[in-house]
Structure formats: structure tokens, C-alpha cells
Design brief:
CATH topology: Spore Coat Polysaccharide Biosynthesis Protein SpsA, Chain A
Largest sheet: 9 strands, mixed
Shape: globular
CATH superfamily: Spore Coat Polysaccharide Biosynthesis Protein SpsA, Chain A
CATH architecture: Alpha-Beta Complex
Length: 220
């Protein structure tokens, strides 16, 4: 079984969609659910699911600290994964990402979704600016960093702790500081980000304050 970190902080309506789907569609995953102090009924909902691995924090520790604690728990794992509660994963996503990563010696692979990079508008533009590995079922697009949801990670490359950095994702900063880690997006697995409506465009209901509240970035 491959440990999968699933994080929540409020937005119960997303969790009710994505968590049951993740459990159903990831039979080879061991789901670790961590709630970061939700106050909208999320914790009560999670308690009713009879989850094997459930942590309910009294306050918001931020995404970075939750990831660090998860990394500590999974030191003996060959692969680990991470999915946030705004991300709907398809059947077979875990096996396919691990397969592609293993066969192509990639350390961190993220499923393809609309928000592939803030610097690029379309997938073709993204491919033109980065290294491309053409595979039968899609393309691997190498990049200095990938996102933190819908990903698999070769556990041995995580050394030390991720440090939160003001106004940028701590996870991205960690990756940029470790250029020897091979990272890529994979177009063969589609992840549906519920906050997004098309390429690099947030849905009308996206809660921008959420990214501050969850510790992904801070205000000046």
C-alpha cells in the first residue's frame, strides 16, 4: 500500500466530493486524512467515515507542517502521494503515476490539470518551454517544480523539512532548491481541480483567501 496524504481545511462541499472518490479510486493507497482545524462541520463529517488514518488538528498548522509530519510517518515507504480536498482524481491514477515515474526515473510526478504553471497559458506552450518525454499514453513535461496535489513522490528524495516561505509555496521553494530532484507533469492522468474552470483561470466560486488560511502563502 502506498501512503497518500489528503488534507482538508473547511470547504466541506469539496471534501464530500473528492474524498469518497479518492478512497474508491485508489485501492492501492493508504489514505492519511489530516484536517487543519476546520470549523464548518468537516471534522464531524470525517469522524463519521470510519477512516483508518485520521488526524483532527485543533488549529491550522498550515500545509507545510502537515506535509513534514506526513514525511516523518512514511520514511520506510518507497513511494508516497498527496491529494488536496479540491482535487478529484480518476481511477488508476496512483498506479499510472508510479509506473511512469519508475520507468522514466522521475522523482516527483504530478497529474495534468488546468493550472499547470502560472507562466503558461496552454499545454502546448508549456511543452515548448520545457523538456518533453513522449510516451505512449501522454507526455512527461519536466519542470523545476510541480504542484502539491495529485502527485506521487519517491520518498527517498525528501530529506530535511520544507520551510514555509512568505508569498510563495513552501513546497515549490523546496523543489527549486533541490535541482537534482527530477520533477515532471504527466498528461496521461487528468486531475480535476474544482477551483479551476479552464487554463490558469479560477472558477467564479474560488476562495482566494483559502490559500492564505491554509498556509500556502501569507499576506504582507
Amino acid at each position: 500500500m502506498i501512503p497518500i496524504l489528503y488534507t482538508t481545511f473547511n470547504r466541506l462541499y469539496y471534501t464530500k466530493i473528492t474524498l469518497p472518490a479518492l478512497i474508491e479510486r485508489t485501492p492501492n493507497g493508504e489514505i492519511y486524512v489530516v484536517d487543519n482545524g476546520s470549523t464548518d462541520g468537516t471534522q464531524e463529517y470525517l469522524k463519521g467515515l470510519n477512516l483508518e488514518h485520521l488526524t483532527l488538528n485543533d488549529s491550522n498548522l498550515g500545509v507545510t507542517e502537515v506535509m513534514n509530519l506526513f514525511f516523518d510517518e512514511t520514511k520506510d515507504s518507497e513511494w508516497i502521494g498527496k491529494v488536496d480536498n479540491d482535487t478529484l482524481m480518476p481511477f488508476g491514477w496512483l498506479e499510472e503515476l508510479v509506473r511512469v515515474a519508475s520507468e522514466n526515473e522521475i522523482d516527483i510526478v504530478q497529474a495534468y490539470h488546468y493550472f499547470v504553471s502560472h507562466n503558461h497559458v496552454t499545454w502546448d506552450d508549456f511543452k515548448n518551454c520545457n523538456g518533453v518525454i513522449n510516451l505512449d499514453n501522454g507526455n512527461l513535461i519536466t519542470h523545476p517544480y510541480v504542484g502539491g496535489s495529485g502527485i506521487v513522490i519517491r520518498r527517498e528524495v525528501i530529506k530535511g523539512y520544507i520551510i514555509p516561505v512568505e508569498l510563495i509555496f513552501g513546497w515549490s521553494y523546496f523543489q527549486v532548491g533541490r535541482p537534482e530532484i527530477k520533477k515532471a507533469f504527466y498528461s496521461g492522468v487528468w486531475a480535476d481541480l474544482l477551483d479551476m474552470k479552464n487554463n490558469n483561470s479560477y472558477s467564479d466560486t474560488a476562495d482566494f483567501e483559502y490559500y492564505v488560511e491554509t498556509g500556502r502563502m501569507t499576506k504582507h
